Amino acid sequence: MRSFAATNQESQTLAEAEEKKAGKAERNGINIQNERSLHIGLKQWYAQPQDRFEVPVGGFVIDLVRGSQLVEIQTRNFTAIRPKLKALLKEHPVHLVHPITYEKWVVQVENKGTSVLSRRKSSYRGALTDIFEELVRLPELVMHEGFTLEFPFIREEEVRCRDGKGSKHRKKVSIKDRKLLEVISTHRFATAQDFLQFLPSTLPQPFSNKDLEKALRLPLHRCRQITYCLRKMEAIAVVGKNRNELLFSVALSPVAETTTPAEFLPAE
């Protein structure tokens, strides 16, 4: 399995690509060229009057700069941004914003994308624990004092087209765009201790992934993602085994309070 640590070569290659992307001097407004609607919408939602946009820093193009802090908005695929984050964190504080879809509406368009065929509300409903689907790509970065994360809960519109080019599980339907409808709430994480809120106080000590599965009522694969991330953050440690199951114990003191609901869903 390939290490999650980015190599110098990866960072250099990505930096060169970003430098070509910059091409011109810093822009005064939000650049929408070659950006998807969701990314643009989140940037507009997050922006404050004194922010700067599309700023070249260290060979990379930064979505938004606020004072000394660099802000990157990543709607998917933490693997792609990991080398960039690791390179930037050597000299700058970095804040990563990643949306979690709470509710979505599916819009079907015809092949040319000019006419809407239908619009329906999806049965899908997200939860804060969905962050671990991507966080497994870079959990060790949480230990860096200059790295913080923010997860806005959103309502979005997903634009689809039956063009035969999509994946098999979507029956060849392509996702053409994602549009931000509303930010319901947002959740910030600054330290490894902040992530201990995902461990219920009722968990036995030590505990297994199956204990966590029972306590959170989540699929086992999600619980494994949670414990993997917490281990990489050094928030929990492996303290033994019960047959083939690893046993974990909390290695850090949890934060005193959390505003996240017990079920990890935003308030209605």
From TrEMBL:
Lineage of the species this protein comes from: Bacteria, Pseudomonadati, Bacteroidota, Cytophagia, Cytophagales
Biased composition range(s): Basic and acidic residues: 17-27
Biased composition range(s): Polar residues: 1-14
Region described as Disordered: 1-30
Record domain DUF8091: where: 37-189
Protein name: DUF8091 domain-containing protein
Organism domain of life: Bacteria
InterPro entries: DUF8091
